[in-house]
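Let us work through a complete example step by step.
Step 1: write down the sequence.
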Amino acid sequence: MSSEVVRVRADVAYDGGGFSGWAVQPGRRTVAGVLTDALDRILGPDAATGLTVAGRTDAGVHATGQVCHVDLADGAWQPVATTLVRRLNAVLPPDVRVYAASAVPASFDARFSATFRRYEYRVTDAAYGAEPLRRHEILAWPRPLDLAALNAAAAGLLGEHDYAAYCRRKEHATTVRELTRLDWRRDPDGILVGTVQADAFCQSMVRSLVGAMLVAGDGRRPTDWPGSLLRRRERASEVTVVPPHGLTLVAVGYPEDPAEFGRQATATRRLRAPVEAGTEG
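Step 2: predict the structure and record it as tokens.
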């Protein structure tokens, strides 16, 4: 990449309820579309190019730890380097915030340099459902949930497996993934939070996994049932995909040493080039 071009990393959060997902779609309001409009307004049309995101979240999915990058001419970056965050948030709608914007090495790729994506899914089993002010981020479950049963079900899904039973299969794309974390906790306010982490996810995978664990957590299925579905090589129709509003992308990990950005990106492209890394719906 020319030294006259600066790659800029942006850390972004959004309420997904008002968006048709991240990716630009004609005639639809999307996070990428809104962010591009804001960049064009501040920097001029097409001054920012190559908008690339870590995880292309689907309609209704939120983010508190999303990461993306754009490329700017050095002459466009330098005048706004210290003010871009404030200026972007002044023109962005209130359901999107940019927390940080900084120059990074040209080898950084928001998507392919990532080492993991971490999601959280929030559920309440309170008799009255979700609190009114949090109903857009928490799923109200109509039955009591047992934390130990949820974690027992989660344990059977950890590791590297073919998650075909939990994915919407795409042509020429693998459904093999490695879950490095999958567990549940109950916060002091009673909300159950399921945390799942992997290098990448296939479409609808997290919400399908949550749907299977919840029916084990409320006793309608045995705790080994979600894991038993990993023997399938096609989507399990009996698994309910839970609604998107309970799901939030909370973190994306990258190598600590910037010198590793390029090597990580090369390795990821070799492994998952046909896959929409990080896509979750």
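Step 3: interpret the result. The beta strands are 5-14, 48-53, 62-73, 96-104, 116-124, 139-140, 159-162, 176-186, 192-198, 247-253.
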